[in-house]
Write a sequence for this structure.
């Protein structure tokens, strides 16, 4: 596959890098990360410049481009600052469920609000402290006249408490097998009975708020069903494919960001009368890091382009996320080592890339889950 | 394997009780405050848990290094890693015990043992980390006084310290290895200022800081050891410092591992315990193996160190291997626990952040590998 970027793609990449360079303020970010605060001040501006929802059709004020272009933006943002980059890029998290399966009316109503930076979106799939398997979903929605009454407790909801709407995975048929008994329902954030509680204090991705979502007899119109009834699990799996590619692009950005800082430091830092980049042990460390960044880039670009050409698979996305998160973790840890004592200080940023990489590796499915998923596809041919 | 006596075991029991009462309940508060209060140090001292190797003549209990090992292990089992009592007891105070004059020992040791004095050792500078001999801090001796100038950084106990063992160079001596001397500098000496607390990835209860010396005058009698022997003295004492890191890092990794095993046993996932998954079982089996092998090596090293054998190479090996292994174990434990592992409320996440400094301080693991290679005459 030719991964040479088109002129338009290069322009997007350049614009995203320049935006991040100009607008991401390290000191402010450190303060927001200490407080665990969403970067609301930049989100609006990023949206106005078209960086949010670049993969939504223009009809919904999106960029009319693909997941590939969205990945380029995620990579560029996270390269400058992974805490800020992930928060911005996840501001529409779950909107893709509408995009791929929602009604015209639903898309027309919600997607422009996300793309314009007016609201955040959130996915509410997981339940229980260990993030139980989705087919064990206990949250449920029952019909009452034309409406749905939704009850349940969802955990680890990114953008919880701030989202304009939640895509909630619920059981709509208690008797059917999970593949047929689960559905996705859109629940507006301001409905009575929507309670966001128990905000998570995390070691990384601290600008992305996460809470539990408690739904207490929430009444929503029947039209809030996303796609067809009973197709929820399949929709979530399709969403995961996209989400994993996006998270992989973020991890790629984090790896690049940590690598660039380590490289710059190694060139400048003098010890024993020469730059430490002159020592073979450091040179080989840097070579390994560079190799890992390049491998990750190849995997991410291939997965993203594949998705846009309907040539990707969820398993490929899962494998890409595994590689990309491992790369981000390893490269940022090595960057800390190269910076030595400075690497452990918040001011020098590489420790934050490392913490963000660790949090990213759990986001939207941890390593065990992804390996189970990839194995099922590779061995059992389950898609 | 270690030859603990009944007295050691009783000491461990007493210290466990103390830690349960006086350390564990305050772990979260100290993390939030980014400081261990001096009162906690005094309690440690009054309880007889600081400088356990110090001579009874100065108020110490005259214990051996196994008492130090017990203290490190029990501190490692708490939910904080910033109360570096063993940095004081087993790394800094030994400089005074080994190289101090009678007068210096009489003056400082009783306070070190009681917890009224808190010590720090200042080697690293902004431009001299691994390259210790490249330090720029100067000490000019004249007319019975020493004038100190320079900046030290990443100094543990930097805010709380009342007494600093400072390494500085005589600018008149060209050979850097012969130019360095060690000096005792008291808090409050004019010209000695503490910087602000450094904001770190972890070890938040530890008060790491910069120290500034600006025409700071101390009496020449505050020099520790012979003039120009500083580099050698540092190299001698860095051995125990690195062994301390190995023992402590191993103990932290073991505490994380034990917690994770329990968690995997009792946490249900899809209707069965996490520990029933083969992937989880193999991961725990691999970690148990790594930990046991590290422990065997480290315990042998502890005994050889106590027998004063030449263990420069083995100490570097232990520091490098345990600190890397501890980080590996920390990351893998979190992977098994899943999303909760990233929550600050999970005991693993804090220690994962804390442990990342271990491959860096007390000599980076790259420096350790250099020493090992040199010992192998490569």
């Amino acid at each position: 596959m030719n991964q040479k970027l088109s002129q338009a793609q290069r322009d997007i990449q350049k614009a995203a890098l320049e935006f991040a360079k100009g607008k991401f303020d390290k000191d402010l970010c450190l303060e927001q990360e200490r407080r665990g605060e969403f970067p609301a001040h930049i989100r609006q501006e990023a949206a106005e410049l078209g960086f949010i929802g670049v993969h939504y059709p223009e009809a919904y004020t999106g960029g009319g481009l693909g997941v590939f272009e969205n990945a380029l933006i995620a990579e560029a943002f996270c390269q400058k600052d992974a805490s800020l980059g992930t928060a911005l890029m996840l501001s529409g998290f779950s909107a893709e469920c509408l995009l791929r399966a929602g009604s015209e009316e639903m898309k027309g109503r919600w997607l422009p609000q996300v793309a314009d930076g007016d609201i955040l979106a959130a996915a509410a799939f997981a339940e229980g402290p260990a993030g139980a398997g989705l087919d064990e979903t206990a949250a449920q929605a029952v019909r009452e006249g034309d409406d749905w009454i939704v009850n349940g407790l969802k955990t680890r909801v990114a953008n919880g408490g701030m989202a304009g709407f939640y895509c909630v995975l619920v059981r709509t048929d208690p008797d059917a097998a999970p593949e047929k008994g689960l559905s996705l329902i859109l629940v507006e954030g301001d409905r009575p009975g929507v309670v966001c509680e128990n905000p998570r204090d995390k070691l990384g991705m601290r600008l992305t708020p996460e809470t539990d979502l408690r739904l207490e007899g929430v009444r929503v119109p029947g039209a809030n069903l996303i796609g067809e009834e009973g197709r929820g699990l399949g929709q979530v799996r399709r969403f995961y494919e996209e989400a994993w590619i996006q998270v992989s692009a973020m991890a790629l950005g984090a790896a690049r960001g940590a690598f660039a800082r380590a490289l710059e430091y190694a060139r400048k830092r003098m010890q024993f009368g020469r730059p430490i980049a002159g020592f073979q042990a450091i040179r080989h460390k840097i070579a390994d890091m560079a190799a890992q960044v390049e491998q990750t880039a190849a995997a991410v670009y291939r997965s993203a382009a594949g998705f846009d050409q309907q040539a990707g698979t969820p398993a490929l996305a899962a494998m890409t996320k595994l590689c990309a998160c491992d790369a981000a973790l390893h490269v940022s840890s090595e960057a800390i080592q190269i910076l030595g004592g400075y690497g452990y200080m918040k001011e020098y940023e590489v420790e934050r890339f490392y913490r963000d990489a660790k949090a990213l590796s759990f986001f939207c499915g941890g390593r065990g889950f992804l390996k189970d998923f990839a194995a099922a596809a590779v061995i059992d041919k389950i898609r | 394997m270690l030859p603990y006596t009944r007295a050691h075991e009783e000491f461990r029991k007493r210290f466990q009780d103390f830690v349960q009462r006086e350390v564990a309940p305050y772990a979260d508060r100290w993390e939030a405050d980014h400081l261990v209060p001096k009162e906690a140090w005094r309690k440690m001292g009054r309880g007889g848990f600081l400088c356990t190797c110090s001579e009874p003549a100065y108020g110490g209990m005259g214990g051996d290094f196994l008492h130090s090992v017990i203290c490190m292990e029990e501190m490692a089992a708490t939910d904080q890693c910033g109360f570096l009592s063993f940095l004081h007891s087993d790394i800094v105070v030994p400089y005074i015990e080994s190289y101090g004059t009678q007068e210096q020992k009489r003056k400082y040791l009783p306070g070190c043992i009681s917890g009224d004095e808190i010590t720090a050792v200042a080697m690293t500078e902004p431009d001299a980390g691994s390259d210790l001999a490249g330090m720029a801090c100067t000490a000019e001796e004249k007319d019975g006084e020493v004038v100190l100038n320079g900046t030290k950084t990443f100094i543990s106990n930097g805010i709380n310290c009342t007494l600093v063992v400072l390494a500085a160079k005589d600018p008149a001596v060209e050979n850097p290895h012969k130019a360095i001397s060690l000096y005792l500098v008291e808090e409050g000496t004019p010209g000695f200022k503490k910087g602000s607390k450094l904001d770190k990835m972890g070890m938040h209860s530890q008060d790491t800081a910069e120290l500034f010396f600006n025409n700071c005058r101390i009496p020449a009698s505050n020099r520790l050891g012979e003039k120009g022997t500083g580099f050698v003295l540092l190299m001698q004492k860095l051995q125990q410092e690195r062994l301390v890191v190995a023992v402590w890092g191993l103990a932290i990794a073991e505490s994380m591992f034990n917690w994770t095993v329990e968690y995997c046993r009792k946490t249900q996932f899809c209707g069965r315990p996490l520990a029933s998954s083969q992937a989880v079982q193999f991961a725990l089996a691999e970690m148990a193996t790594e930990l046991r092998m590290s422990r065997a090596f480290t315990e042998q090293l502890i005994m050889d160190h106590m027998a004063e054998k030449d263990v420069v190479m083995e100490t570097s090996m232990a520091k490098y291997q345990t600190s890397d292994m501890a980080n590996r174990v920390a990351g893998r434990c979190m992977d098994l626990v899943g999303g909760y592992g990233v929550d600050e409320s999970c005991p693993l996440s804090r220690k994962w952040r804390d442990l990342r400094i271990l491959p860096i301080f007390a000599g980076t693991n790259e420096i350790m590998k250099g020493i090992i290679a040199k010992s192998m005459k490569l």
Notes: Chain A has a mean pLDDT of 95. DSSP finds 13 helices and ten strands in chain A.
